[in-house]
Amino acid sequence: MTAHAVDLGHVGKIFAAGAVTALADITLTVGAGEFVSLIGPSGCGKSTLLRIVADLEQPTSGTVAVHGKTARQARLDQDYGIAFQQAGLLDWRTVQENVELPLQLHRVPKVERRARSAELLAMAGLSEFARRYPAELSGGMQQRVAIARALAREPSLLLMDEPFGALDEMTRERMQGELLRIAGETAAAVVFVTHSIPEAVFLSDRVVVMSPRPGRISAVVDTGGRRRDADGDEIRSSTAFFDAVAQVRAALHGGVRAAAGREAR
Prior knowledge:
By secondary structure, the chain is an alpha/beta fold. It has nine helices and ten strands. The longest helix has 26 residues, at 239-264.
């Protein structure tokens, strides 16, 4: 693997035969094991950018590399796991069978599948629910299953599009801690889309702030790379945390004002 999990060079995306410019001149690198959040106003292209990295959308211009490979090759090689706002579990499969699905599709022997799913469910704190069905789990537990499934093939990159957006605040904070623990244990790089400034700051090594459409990178805020095993409440009440939140908020507001100025001209 290369030193960078993701390399984006001057990426642009235009939809509807030139009618909508979603992204313009996005240049960004994400290091191996680094946690980077994308934040910006609705419609700024955060999810589109994530889908381009995942090879689910094609850029109109620029270059995309995942661990030194093309995005297509990285997808074929299963170099990343992906999780969305909805867990997307299969209702007719047990928790264990949902986690095993990527392994089954790649014809991993049953004994190995069971061992890997047991390992992941233990990591996610869900061992006792292995034989339950998704409908029997809370929303937060379903998301943990989805994250476990995304990690099934030990990807070196995890792509996440607002996976905690529908959760209540207490569950959301608990899941943030779980995600940091899992990312730390697996050493996976993470690209995480969110609308929440505190969430972005809490989770990330760097927060990438995007401007209103066409989405551009208006600022990158370094949060200081907090220790993954630190107490969450302690982090959220620290001066450094509030300072970083203020920096991201100022960058967001500045990007909105700049975009408004461009439109006025």
